[in-house]
Amino acid sequence: MRALSLLLVGGLVVLAGCNTDYEQDDVVPDAETVRPGVAALYAGLDPTPAELAEGECFADALLDRLTPEDLVVAGVLTDDGDPAAAVPMLDRDTAAVWVDVQAGCAEYAQVAGRAAAELDPDVDPDVYARCLDEAVSADDQRTALVTTLSGGVDTPIVAELTAAQAACAQEAGGASADPAVEPTDEASAQVRAGLVDLYLNDTRSLQRVTEGECFVDAFLQRRSVPQLVLAEVIDETGRVVPDLPRLDLETARAWVDAETACVAPLDALTRELRADAEPGDRPARTALRQCLSTTLDADQVRAALVQRLTQGSGSAEAAALARAQQDCVDAARPTG
């Protein structure tokens, strides 16, 4: 069954350090000025009305607990008071404030259930939420979330929450990512966590972490751990490498097919292209998605993605995909 491990970390999380360039004499805008940016950072790209409301609640409460200067030092805001491109890895004290503030605006199990249902319509979000609250205490949920925000993904408490979420997704009616493919072997929690990190490539959101767990399930149904060692995705010590290497053809096909089982390729491309753009120059989501869908077909996208994983961005297929993407970005940019 598809394991939907939903580690609610609010907006995007990039596992990077704090802002070491900040000087005490730097002038940071006041709380009212930075509040909209903090809310937008929490809500993420293309938020639902519920996520927008949670983002506003979160920003209000966070700025009651931490000053803009605190958020600059933590890397959540830039020196000018603008929101960072993604939420950085936080020190444990700041992570604890973040999680506590978040809990005051939305119950984790309810939000996780809602996100699970968005990914898999067969999941009943209320059943999921009740299951998760029964399986993992509120204190343990909090500890797991604080640990995740402060960089401790590969820890027993996070593994406990991950396992509970997988079981609750099944209990709530979740469907298998690919019932025709049987798992090739069992992977350790360390390998699974490493593969999630490798897939996320330093970007974390509720939706992305959900997709990451789904991806790992589907990928490990297609490639065994010994095969991943041969492909140099896992090193000789049994750990997943920090950067994805060039892959052999079969591993690349398994990677792309596993990702496709969890998110539509054009949806993933749309999100990636919008996230790479500056906020004021960000292409409209609907227009960008429509352009990509009329320009590219599924087989073309799959071939290009496989070639990118095996040969890099210089391959003919990957270059053609990059050109088509740029043309659609240009066409969907805001005018005036």
TrEMBL record:
Record protein name field: Secreted protein
Organism: Nocardioides marinquilinus
